[in-house]
Write a structure and sequence with these properties.
The chain has helices spanning about 80-85, 155-165, 165-170, 215-225; strands at about 1-10, 10-20, 25-30, 50-55, 60, 70-75, 95, 100-105, 110, 120, 120-130, 145-150, 155, 175-185, 195-200, 200-205, 235, 245, 250-255, 260-265. It has about 270 residues and is mainly beta. The chain folds into two domains: about 1-60; about 70-265, Fumarylacetoacetate hydrolase, domain 2. A hairpin with a 2-residue loop joins strand 15 (about 195-200) and strand 16. The structure holds magnesium ion. Magnesium ion (MG) binds next to loops.
């Protein structure tokens, strides 16, 4: 199943995204009357209503998640830890981005005046399906995953280095582009390519099979600390190849089975 969130007649809706026979582009085919909360792929069981189909590419998309929190994993790929000169962490390194940093597909990332270096970080995002608290080694994490999306963990790298903790560097408004859809038809355990392009040029080309901490380890670890709620978002870390972008650039995070998250960059006015 794939779904998005979008604006229609001035209000926000969740919509089912499908390939319709006879068309070669994805379309929003049904309004979902509540945020999807299970991951068994049973589209028929979702409360929904008919709508005039809209090509996904023409929809006014919103971030496809409404998380109570955005939990991010730092340094979850060996080669990325190395490129920033860091040791491999012994346990998952966590930080938050505030929900106020969310940005829809196509939204403009604003570089704050107080930073001179802002970097893209393309990542796989995990969307939580149901409340999850203190999972143990014997708990299967898959039933707690609703689906996956693209995340750009945009970062003021100079402020991250200067501050010693990351709230400011990671937390500016517009610093968390997410989307375009949430999809459940991919298997990060088997390996999913995560690619980032700047102005069309490939800068990051990673694969989730290179995670230092698997999704099992990450979700269990977070759940030992805090209760995860339906719709919460986990950003699973970025592969090597991070780098700066400036006003006028555009960043695209692409993940097979989800699609492409594209956002232009501008300076904060
Ligand atoms: Mg990151």
């Amino acid at each position: 199943m794939k779904y998005c969130r979008f604006q229609l007649n001035g209000s926000a809706h969740y919509g089912l995204v499908e390939f319709v026979a006879g068309s070669n582009e994805e379309e929003i085919t049904r309004l979902l009357l509540q945020p999807p909360q299970h991951s068994d792929g049973d589209v028929e069981g979702l409360p929904s209503r008919r709508m005039d189909r809209i090509p996904l590419a023409q929809a006014s998309l919103l971030p496809p998640v409404e998380p109570t929190k955005i939990v991010c994993v730092g340094r979850n790929y060996r080669e990325h830890a190395a490129e920033l000169g860091h040791e491999i962490p012994q346990e998952p390194l966590l930080f938050f981005k505030p929900p106020s940093s969310l940005l829809p597909p196509g939204g403009i990332i604003l570089r704050p005046k107080v930073s001179e270096r802002t970097d893209y970080e393309g990542e796989l995002g995990v969307v939580i399906a149901r409340r999850c608290h203190q999972l143990t080694e014997s708990d299967d994490v898959r039933p707690y995953i609703l689906g996956y999306t693209c995340v750009n963990d945009f970062t003021a790298r100079d402020l991250q280095n200067k501050d010693g903790q990351w709230t400011r560097a990671k937390g500016f408004d517009t610093f968390c582009p997410v989307g375009p859809v949430v999809a459940d038809g991919l298997d990060p355990w088997a390996g999913v390519p995560v690619e980032t392009r700047v102005n069309g040029e490939v800068r990051q080309s990673g694969n989730t099979r290179d995670f230092i901490f698997s999704l099992d380890a990450v979700i269990r670890y977070i759940s030992q600390i805090m209760t995860l709620e339906p719709g919460d978002l986990i950003a699973t870390g970025t592969p090597k190849g991070v780098g700066p972008v400036v006003a006028g650039d555009a960043v695209e995070v692409s993940i097979e089975g989800i699609g492409q998250l594209r956002n232009p960059i501008a300076n904060q006015p």
